[in-house]
Design brief:
Blueprint (H helix, E strand, L loop, with lengths): L29 H13 L17 H13 L13 H14 L23 E2 L6 H13 L5 H4 L9 H16 L7 E2 L4 H16 L19
Antiparallel strand pairs: 1-2
Helix pairs in contact: 1-2
């Protein structure tokens, strides 16, 4: 029996977006099965068939790998992927991070996380709203004038409160200002994140004395971009 090939280094070119649910309990499209296999293989959670590679077969190994990935990211290990759910978003974020590992990136960011605005999962209305993601988004919006600067200097990771309303309102205002869909939500690799990330570096350059590893140093007043 030939050796099972080692998955190649991932080359992230586009997010994985299944057309329907990926689940052992529902009918699945061939493209979704193969797409899930490839995405999980990028991260070492699935190995293709010897000699045959990826095949549109919804086998047990696929769902075992999916559960293992979910568990590794602190998600419910149910072996199910909603086309717009947190597992798909986490899968894309992990593949992108692995594919770009070692690439030249900014050394520091608003919260010391390695890029101008890194997101692991969606934030805002209907988003997963992980604490670290919400903190980064609030600090970024505050720097650009779309979130109260006194709060942005010490951003927290909460939503669903009066402070969360300020955050979602500011996110929607930013989207309207730049002609984006004003859904008050920001997805990893989405247009809102891309635009916000693009504007951050010039704003940082204009903020004299701003320590990008310390959000508390954001000046009280900044001009909007």
């Amino acid at each position: 029996m030939p050796a099972i090939p080692t998955p190649p280094r991932p080359t992230f070119t586009r997010p994985f977006r299944p057309a329907h649910w990926v689940s052992a309990k529902t009918p699945m499209r061939d493209g979704d099965i193969v797409g899930a296999q490839r995405a999980l293989a990028d991260l070492g959670h699935y190995r293709p068939w010897p000699d045959l590679g990826f095949q549109p077969v919804a086998e047990r190994r696929l769902f075992q790998g999916l559960k293992a990935f979910q568990k590794s990211k602190g998600l419910e290990p149910d072996g199910v992927m909603d086309p717009a759910g947190p597992t798909v978003q986490a899968l894309d974020a992990a593949r992108h991070a692995k594919a770009t590992a070692g690439a030249k990136r900014p050394a520091r960011d608003l919260l010391g996380r390695g890029a101008n605005l890194p997101l692991d999962l969606p934030v805002g209305e209907g988003g997963a709203n992980r604490e670290a993601d919400v903190k980064a988004a609030k600090a970024a919006l505050g720097l650009l004038g779309y979130y109260p600067p006194e709060k942005a200097r010490r951003p927290d990771g909460r939503t669903g409160t009066a402070d969360g309303h300020d955050f979602e309102f500011g996110l929607g205002a930013f989207q309207r200002r730049f002609g984006l869909e004003a859904d008050r939500r920001m997805d990893p690799f989405g247009p809102t994140q891309a635009k916000l990330d693009e504007l951050l570096q010039p704003a940082l350059d204009r903020a004299f004395g701003f320590d990008i590893e310390n959000p508390a140093s954001i000046p009280a007043r900044l001009n909007r971009c």
